[in-house]
Amino acid sequence: xxxxxxxxxxxxxxxxxxxxxxxxxxxxxxxxxxxxxxxxxxxxxxxxxxxxxxxxxxxxxxxxxxxxxxxxxxxxxxxxxxxxxxxxxxxxxxxxxxxxxxxxxxxxxxxxxxxxxxxxxxxxxxxxxxxxxxxxxxxxxxxxxxxxxxxxxxxxxxxxxxxxxxxxxxxxxxxxxxxxxxxxxxxxxxxxxxxxxxxxxxxxxxxxxxxxxxxxxxxxxxxxxxxxxxxxxxxxxxxxxxxxxxxxxxxxxxxxxxxxxxxxxxxxxxxxxxxxxxxxxxxxxxxxxxxxxxxxxxxxxxxxxxxxxxxxxxxxxxxxxxxxxxxxxxxxxxxxxxxxxxxx
Length: 344
Known about the structure:
- Belongs to the iron/ascorbate-dependent oxidoreductase family.
- This protein has helices at residues 13-17, 54-60, 81-96, 99-102, 153-180, 185-192, 294-300, 311-320, 329-332, 336-343; strands spanning 5-6, 51-53, 72-75, 114-116, 119-120, 131-138, 197-204, 216-219, 225-230, 237-241, 244-247, 255-259, 265-267, 275-282, 289-290, 309-310.
- With 344 residues, it is of the alpha+beta class.
- The strands form four sheets. It has an eight-stranded mixed β-sheet. The protein has a four-stranded antiparallel β-sheet with strand order 8-13-10-11, with no helix packed on it.
- Strand 10 and strand 11 form a beta hairpin.
- The two termini are 35 Å apart.
């Protein structure tokens, strides 16, 4: 699954941003066209994302409204606040470590797990103003021995505990989503139980020209669900709603949950403050079919609107396209000709 070459010329945006004489952003980070952020006014106030209480989801069951087409803030999620605070401190400590220590986990040519910057898809592609650490955490046999097992003990132990708790939350959410959509439980478990899970820690340094760069290129997620934790009080996540980039405000002690490859989002950066985040992604098993629910098709008798791919193939196709602000769903959609040919 090593689809791309990592960026090797500049090892850290964080180190670049530390330079006292840095007043102009290097050209490789300057976006050709960065769409502006929505500015609220008296007639157009700032929209907010839905706030969902996990207790309400459990109590209401199949009658709940999961607002599947939106990111939402999840409160009363059940993950211990002291563990969350400890996890925040450990990620901050990781990025505060000397560059030599972080480079122990450096991205290698042809791989996409480890510490580094934007993974390039094309010659001349612009680079995000961020440093990241990404790794697969489940199935356990897919973990790279030079990454999580080689972490400092405090970070490794805390991350293992945190992932265990968020994994329970993620599986609960997937079960509730399936029930709300009237998808059979066995089908959801077959797809997601012991599925592919991964973690991304991201550091967005201050930038002398923040309006010229992006911290995270506009995109949609390939995951079934993403559970995002913001580590400090600096905002930066934005979602695209009706062509406008809307800032997302994080609530204290809440997660932001994104469901599927539905909503475009990006991250912007700050002129004077750093921002840090921790995302956990929940995907189907690599051998699972990704497409319209078989149980729903059987119940409704309707033709599928989207193609079905094996998850591993889906990921290859998803990540082989440049993140250009579009979802992958439009490529999966079946047109009338596909239906006609399949019926012949």
